[in-house]
Amino acid sequence: MTKIQEYTSKGVKAGEQTLPKEFDQKINMALLAQVVHVFEERSHVGLRKTKTRAEINRTTKKVYKQKGTGGARHGSRRANLFVGGGVALGPRPVRRVLNISDKMKERARLFAYNLKASEGNLVLVKGLSKIDKTKSVSELCNALTQATGAKRFTLILSDGGRDVVKYFRNFNSASAIFWRNANAYDIFGGGMIVLDSEIFPKKVEAKAKKVQVKAKETVSKAK
After folding, report:
1. Which CATH number fits domain 3-44+101-206: 3.40.1370.10, 1.10.1660.10, 3.40.50.300, 3.40.50.12780?
2. Residue 200 exposed, middle or buried by CB count within 10 Å (0-12, 13-18, 19+)
3. How far is Cα 35 from Cα 211, in angstroms, rounded to an integer?
4. Fewer CB within 10 Å, N or C, the chain?
5. pLDDT for 38-57, tens place per residue?
């Protein structure tokens, strides 16, 4: 079972927590690298472009006479050899779209969390969705920096933390993203990953209900 350190919203240690079983997987670095590459490629707009000699607006007058100068033969200032001329083999606006399946995305997402946990770059914070001012965010980041040595943070918020996102806008070293929107690229390159403790209670409650149902079935069979 994967265990991670838990902190309060003030940055004080509050023990350890065990992540759900779905996180306890053997890391497939090849799949993780593939998915991260796809997300990284999608972040590029793909509109980079340079002008060829056919697109340059310059004089069409011959540079100098064909023979007798001792220099190479040139017919246009648009050639790539001249300053201000066209670019011979520059980038063109071609947009590539790479696709991966939803199953691969989800597996890579879990691999990224597991990799961060194995490196000690995954922590849990209680009361993260109750932060109500920017100063609290600053205090939390400073406390986590002193405790872990990390300098950049990505906070994974639950659905109840929608009002907390605005308090991270003025921080260059910290960013916030919702649990349902976080992908392998965000996690892998996000520095220290800080999970909101309210992400997991529903799963814990569901397990407790299953245990209660099984207990009732056992009692009924015994009668």
Report:
1. 3.40.1370.10
2. middle
3. 37
4. C
5. 998 888 877 889 999 999 99
